[in-house]
Design a protein that fits this description.
Number of strands: 14
Bound molecules: biotin
Radius of gyration: 21 Å
Helix content: 25-40%
Shape: globular
Strand order of the largest sheet: 3-4-5-9-8-7-6
Structural class: alpha+beta
Length: 299
Amino acid sequence: MSRELGLSRAAVWKKIETLRGKGFAVEAVPAKGYRLTGAPEFSLEELETLIEGEVGKNIVFLGKADSTNDLAMRSASEGAPHGTVFIADSQTGGKGRLGRTWVSPAGVNIYMSVILRPELSPREATLLTLLSSVACATALRRTTGLEVSIKWPNDLMAGGRKLGGILLEMRSEPDRVLYAVVGIGININMKRNALPDIVRPIATSLMEETGKKHRRTPIAAEILNEIENMLKTLERKGRGRILSLWRELSSTLGKEVVVTAGDETLRGTATDIDDEGRLILKTKTGILTISAGDLTHLR
Ligand code: BTN
């Protein structure tokens, strides 16, 4: 081990002690070396070994943050590179879409924000939320086997309830996005009864849906690797491919829905999304295109 790493035996031992201090179980095997026999459920050290590309190459891992999106936006404004990720075990000011609060207790869920510097115009930026929701749904399906779907615009759903969501923030010039932050919140091992009364009936977690606990590290790594993969798909195959992947994973299309957008409540059939991710709604009075709002599936 020391030969391979170019370190003295004492230096290897010191690193092993550091890992033990962080919750890794490492057995010493006489005359052979060390063997890893257990890893913490969520750690930067393991996460770094699982990252395959640019997204997640640089990770800031914190016990507590106000909001990882706020940290990422600030860091991006100071020049942090594409692919930098902020992860927190808990948030004191977690933000959801439409000015809502994102419940962010410690030890159970994933809260992370990814800085992206894409070559897109501000109008095209919704593609980033679409591709991120596709990446999250794909990664969750692959790591858990659960049939995770996407409710327009980017809610991650399982068993008819919300499992997670995405909050996109960005800074742009009139013709180009300077940087964007994709904030991802996913309920992993949270009990439903830990949720506030108003969201309890509509929210869930991976543990509630599968009846067992899940390790957060491999799930977070899979999501980051899948975002990388989707960015490459956008670059190589264009937006059409992202839109069709979103359509395949969507549980909204074809459904009777109610959408609240501003003061208006609209009812109709969700027929499709357009090139910019806007919802096409067929109502009794005609076809409407909706760019943002709160949507409920009726049946
Ligand atoms: C939604 O309302 O569906 C979006 C929720 C996004 C929550 C995540 S948690 C990590 C990141 N930091 C925040 O403050 N919000 C996002």
